[in-house]
Amino acid sequence: MTYMDSYNAWLSSPALSDAEKQELKSIENDKKEIESRFFDMLEFGTGGLRGTMAVGVFRMNRHVIRHTTQALSELVLEEKSDNDKCIAVCFDSRIDSDTFAREAACVIAGNGIKVRLFDGPRPTPELSFAIREYGCIAGVNVTASHNPKEYNGFKVYWADGAQMPPSHAEEVSRKMTKLDIFTSIKKMDYDKAVKDGLITIMGDETDELFLKNVMAQSNDTQAVKEVADTFKLVYTPFHGAGYKLVPEALRRLGLKHIICEPEQMKLDGNFPTVASPNPENPEGFALAVALAKTHGADLIIGTDPDADRVGIMIRDNTGNYITLTGNQTGVLLLDYVINVKKQAGTMPENPAVLKSLVTTEMARLIAEKNGIDCFDTFTGFKFMAEKKNALEAAGTHKVIYSFEESYGYMVGDFVRDKDAVTASMLIAEMAAWYAWKNKTLFDALGELYEKYGLFAEDTINLVMPGLDGIAKMRELMKNLREKPPVDIAGVKVTTIRDYQTGTELDVNSGASTQIELIGSNVLRYGTADGTNIIVRPSGTEPKVKVYVLASATDKAQCNADDVVMEKITKYRNWANGLTM
């Protein structure tokens, strides 16, 4: 079927509303737009679906939601599991997220499967918790995380609370290709499903259970108590699902001065006060910074729309608010967790730390200097969840902390995904702990660099939009494999790791060895100056991401930041040249 055949099939389908048909008719003379909407289905992977909202098979809309949910429901019905044949459903504050969540719930119920549906927007980690707490076999979250307002998504989780395993994702994708997007859907009336007990609504009772676990991760409430009268914190949820539970966790921690940015506390999928609701972008914090200046706040915390990522701003030694990277926040938290657990005598035997392979190597150095093993995983918390489950099932390690550079952090055993609610509580506790010692987080970070050396990282996004974007991404990775660089930015390449084949090449000797991680389209280059450059296509956006991990651990070099920044600059220029 051509894209025009698909377009015409949708246009003539009785499943479409008048408004949906009118939207399609409005593009009837725009072949490029028609092609972009109908050339293929959105690809379902381990992260589910994500795309812009509009009518069409390559867009996010209620028909695509129903179709995907039908395929998931059939997989669940076929699955042999000790868990209840129940699916938890969550959603964030995005446009139509509530509608899409209800559509999904009605399809699940139409297939005879029980549903646990949240009564309003909730953080992604609470979905992970609910799956585990109530013994569900799977979970669905309608969210596009930190993407712009035009996007929505359909994330699928499995019984352990982590995102769906690849084998299950492949089966859902296979079923979608065989199911008609309109005629194969089994759907039940919402009110009838609730009345018949197939849909159960989750609310405050689940919040309480979740928060009890969140607060159990606190390490030093005494330090908070000591500074509670003077310590001030500004919080913004960027119009998202953290608006309720993050401030509540901070209150329960014992903080007295929690100043919430009033405009951004309003749930709004248009995200009217920010260009993009992404805590990685400093400009999104403008309103929070103004509020912090007014109140003299010590810390600013911001969570993304589904409250799984968290970004912070701190005051530097001049009093200005500066943004920390995900890596910087990550190593601060790592060092803090290690210190307080050692002091309290709560460090488990054989502790371990997990990080993604694109995350700062400073984390490994901190862990190992403290006698803690550090393991790399592929990017994504589903891989961290797999590694945590495997290590703890084998009895070899107890994972105390997991994080990745893209502002995601996980502690405890009650979730298997990044958790901005717990991370926000821990970050606030950490800042209070340092304040109790008459230090700021800026001071603490400086002390870490003095102790372990200077580390700096940069991520270059090579955006490749449009229909030919996927082909360009594939071609770039293909060329790097077929013609591997012998030097990068004038610096000799010493090692090449190909995580697709699970091999590492020593460029000098030509020897190839097997590495632990295998099966992902990622390349890693080690250079003669100690820098690592990692190249991988994004799994959720039309871009290839290039990560530069630079350091200067030699004491003579560490006296000047520009030693590391010169490395960052030259490798950034090389990365930008990959698309020329």
Which features would summarize this protein structure in a list?
globular, 580 residues, alpha/beta, 19 helices, 8-stranded antiparallel β-sheet, 6-stranded mixed β-sheet
Structure characterization notes:
The chain is α/β, with parallel strands linked by helices. The chain is built from 19 helices and 23 strands. The strands form four sheets. Strands 16, 17, 18, 19, 20, 21, 22 and 23 form an eight-stranded antiparallel beta sheet that branches. Helix 4 runs parallel beside helix 5 (97-110) and helix 11 packs parallel to helix 16. It is globular and about 65 Å long.
Task: Write the SSE topology.
Blueprint: H1 3-12, H2 18-25, H3 31-38, E1 49-52, H4 62-78, E2 84-91, H5 97-110, E3 114-118, H6 124-133, E4 136-142, E5 151-158, H7 166-178, H8 190-195, E6 199-202, H9 204-215, H10 221-227, E7 232-236, H11 245-253, E8 257-260, H12 286-295, E9 299-303, E10 310-315, E11 321-323, H13 326-344, E12 351-356, H14 362-369, E13 373-377, H15 381-394, E14 398-404, E15 408-410, H16 420-436, H17 441-452, E16 454-463, H18 469-482, E17 487-488, E18 491-498, E19 503-506, E20 512-514, E21 523-527, E22 532-537, E23 543-552, H19 562-576
Parallel strand pairs: 2-3, 2-4, 3-6, 7-8, 7-9, 12-13, 12-14
Antiparallel strand pairs: 1-5, 4-5, 9-10, 10-11, 14-15, 16-23, 17-18, 18-19, 18-21, 19-20, 21-22, 22-23
Helix pairs in contact: 1-2, 1-3, 4-5, 4-7, 9-11, 10-16, 11-16, 13-14
